[in-house]
């Protein structure tokens, strides 16, 4: 069936079968209805599930946060040209001002507040490496803010695996993701 051809699911034919499923880092609600049944069935039938990173593990989140920081106590102001730093600071002030109007009633009903959300996303931004600040700024849009509080597909599947008592693991360590990004020089960023 055509619906199964475009599923991002690859099968390794062995007994029992193994599967590779390609995910994207978007709120699962944006894509869940378009994931074909064969992919959902493969997930349901699997006893062991490996993810890119183990996003349910507190160490993973802590290590991701730490790897984003500039070394030796440096601040972004120390490494960015003055004009870029000033424009970035003004933009973040604008985002913080706009964020309450970007939030949905559903988010507010779940107890999410604009100040809390801004700090969760942009907190400690002055200590982050430029590449991570760039990624952060790209995520600070009205559309992305409206979807905050909904797990990305990877995290949703990890939470489901945990809920269903599946054995889980990760195929990468945090350092394998951090070091390549942290290795980019300023002109590449």
Automatic annotation (TrEMBL):
It is a single-pass type I membrane protein. The gene is Trabd2a. Its main location: membrane. Keywords: Cell membrane, Glycoprotein, Hydrolase, Membrane, Metal-binding, Metalloprotease, Protease, Signal, Transmembrane, Transmembrane helix, Wnt signaling pathway. CDD domains: Tiki (cd14789). GO terms for cellular component: plasma membrane. Belongs to the TIKI family. This is Metalloprotease TIKI. It comes from Pampusana beccarii. It is an enzyme of class 3 (hydrolase). Its EC number is 3.4.-.-. Metalloprotease that acts as a negative regulator of the Wnt signaling pathway by mediating the cleavage of the N-terminal residues of a subset of Wnt proteins. Following cleavage, Wnt proteins become oxidized and form large disulfide-bond oligomers, leading to their inactivation.
């Amino acid at each position: 069936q055509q619906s199964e051809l475009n599923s991002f699911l690859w099968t390794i034919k062995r007994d029992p079968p193994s599967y590779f499923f390609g995910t994207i880092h978007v709120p699962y609600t944006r894509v869940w209805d378009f994931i074909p049944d064969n992919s959902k069935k493969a997930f349901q039938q699997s006893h062991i599930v490996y993810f890119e990173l183990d996003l349910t593990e507190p160490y993973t989140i802590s290590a991701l946060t730490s790897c984003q920081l500039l070394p030796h106590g440096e601040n972004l102001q120390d490494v960015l040209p003055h004009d870029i730093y000033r424009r970035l600071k003004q933009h973040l002030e604008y985002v913080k001002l706009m964020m309450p109007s970007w939030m949905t009633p559903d988010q507010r009903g779940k107890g999410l507040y604009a100040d809390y959300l801004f700090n969760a996303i942009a907190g400690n931004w002055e200590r982050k490496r430029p590449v991570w600040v760039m990624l952060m700024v790209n995520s600070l849009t009205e559309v992305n803010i409206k979807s905050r509080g909904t797990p990305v597909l990877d995290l949703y599947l990890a939470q489901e695996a945990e809920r269903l008592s599946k054995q889980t693991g990760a195929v990468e360590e945090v350092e394998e993701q951090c070091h390549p990004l942290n290795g980019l020089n300023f002109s590449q960023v």
